[in-house]
Amino acid sequence: MFDAKMKEFRQKFDAMTEDHPQLKYMLEDFDHIVSFRKNAAVVLLVMGAFIGFMFGIIVSLLMGIGSTKTKAQKKKKKD
After folding, report:
1. Helix, strand or coil for residue 17?
2. Are 13 and 20 in contact (CB under 8 A)?
C-alpha cells in the first residue's frame, strides 16, 4: 500500500517539477530518504520540528511577545 501511494505521489510531482529542477532534486532526495531510510526520515522530521520550535521561542523572546508584565506595571517600575 505504501509503495502504491508513493508511486502515485511521484507521478503527480513529476509533471510539477519539470519547470523547477531544484525542486525536482529536493523531492528525489526526500523520496530516497523515505524509501530506504525510514528512521532517517523520522529523525529529519523531529529535528525540523524541534528547530522550528526553538526558533519560535527565540523570536518571541526577542520581540517580547511572551511578556507577563502589563504596560501599567512597566510604567510603574520606570517611575
Report:
1. coil
2. no
